[in-house]
Amino acid sequence: MTYIPNIRPMDIEKKSFEIITEELEKRGKQLEPGTEMIVKRCIHTSADFDYADNLYFSKGAVNRALSAIREGASIVTDTEMAKAGISRRTLAGFGGKVYCFMSDPEVARKAKEEGVTRAIISMRKASALPGKLIFAIGNAPTALLELTDLYRAGKIRPELIIGVPVGFVNVVQSKEALQASGADCIIARGRKGGSNIAACICNALLYMADSTRGAGHSSQPSMNR
Amino acid sequence: MTYIPNIRPMDIEKKSFEIITEELEKRGKQLEPGTEMIVKRCIHTSADFDYADNLYFSKGAVNRALSAIREGASIVTDTEMAKAGISRRTLAGFGGKVYCFMSDPEVARKAKEEGVTRAIISMRKASALPGKLIFAIGNAPTALLELTDLYRAGKIRPELIIGVPVGFVNVVQSKEALQASGADCIIARGRKGGSNIAACICNALLYMADSTRGAGHSSQPSMNR
User: Would residue B217 show up in a list of annotated catalytic residues for this protein?
Assistant: First the structure.
């Protein structure tokens, strides 16, 4: 219940990360080296310490993603909401863009024609994009299942798949299928996740990739709050 | 761990709400009549059953908000992400719009000039909008504190303030100040909330206001998932 009158917005985030770090220590929680900033940012975005336990990182996934971002990788999301939450300015600084095809009328038409979800058609469309790609899935288990199928069939080789759809039906299974596929991935195991978590993992990676922020500085200073 | 192969997307949401209802019953959780669809949608959007306990509704808030929506009220958010998540089509059907002034260059300039957050200047700007207004705050405690000050000073009389900023510094206090002010409000007490929860409460109200959906139908059928 920390209350600090007249705190500068850029200091709110710093203080928040200090509180999160202290609480993780109190809980005796050891985070995997290299993943701390991602886990803490997920807790920061949700105030939910379950993310200290449920996040899974495939071996080498974070480093590969950081290299890809620095080399201009683009990010594909499955919701306009996740797209809106990703720091486009930081990504653009590296040469990348954020794509979401969910509102594309052509996608809607094809989905209806084939009797599948728009999320599936969106992923097929995105898989044809040129250059390095990171997929960030916060909503649709069908998007994640489609990406896993495309990966297994050798049709896509993304730099990273962020598999954090939220929900009660087919969600857990879509994450398990992704984990079993061998693709480089970050997953929120279980039911939890969401567009906010998908965007937040992308932003954590973007801020880590941006060495101008300085080592140990966890977060984006902003006048947002 | 419900897995249903080949389920139609519109049925995923229906099944999800059934699972949520069952789990609430198992937990012996009684929801306040008239708030069920809002609470369940927050759980649906986060897979976090804490929302069964932490949501506070001021007396009559839901009915006043539903009337306001039907009369063309607009919604003001404190993030582009929340704005992106709100069903603009449903709102437009009633005559309302969604506003977010956080990316407005004039807002950024004034915030810098006055040494306050962009969120504060955004709220001042929004309070001058004509017509009925609902505020949905999922990120910035300073936005919520400013709205509470404006309300106490008699300068705004919004139809509803959704106070669900998430975080560790000044967040709990901003919600307590709102609750004490007497303004019509829906609050996620404690640290939890977020842009996703702000958007989700707006959507729950929009779907409830839309009687064409039929009584008892909790959710938006969609091809999203």
Answer: no
- Residue B22 to residue B44: CA distance in whole angstroms: 13
Contact A172 B1 (CB under 8 A): yes
Dist. CA A66–CA A88, nearest whole Å: 16
Q: Cα–Cα distance between A139 and A167 in angstroms, integer?
A: 8
Q: Kindly report, residue by residue over B32-45, the tens digit of the pLDDT.
A: 999 999 999 999 99
pTM of the model: 0.94
Which of B88, B101, B225 to mutate against chain A (most A CBs within 10 Å)? Answer: B225
Residues (pLDDT < 50) of chain B are: 214-223
The residue type found at A105 is: P
* Catalytic site residue from B40, B41, B44, B124: B44
Identify whether the C-beta of residue A206 lies closer than 8 Å to the C-beta of residue A91: yes
- Please name the residues between 32 and 71 in chain B that touch chain A, using a CB distance below 8 Å: 44-48, 50
The owner of tokens 């480093």 is A63
Reported as type and span, the H/E element at residue A2 is none
Q: How far is CA B44 from the centre of its chain?
A: 14
ipTM of the complex: 0.93
> In residues, how long is chain B?
225
Contacts of residue B80 in chain A, CB cutoff 8 Å? 84-85
Distance CA B108, CA B115 (A): 10
For residue A45, is pLDDT > 90? Answer: yes
Instruction: Calculate ∠ Cα B111-B114-B115, nearest 5°.
Output: 75
Residues in chain A within 8 Å Cβ distance of B170: 2-4, 7, 12
Structure tokens at A171: 């969600």
Residues B186, B55 contacting (CB under 8 angstroms): yes
Cβ count within 10 A of residue A5: 6
A117-162 pLDDT per residue, tens: 999 999 999 999 999 999 999 999 999 999 999 999 999 999 999 9
Taking CB atoms and an 8 Å cutoff, what residues of chain B touch A40?
none
- Distance from the Cα of B89 to chain A's closest Cα (Å) equals 12
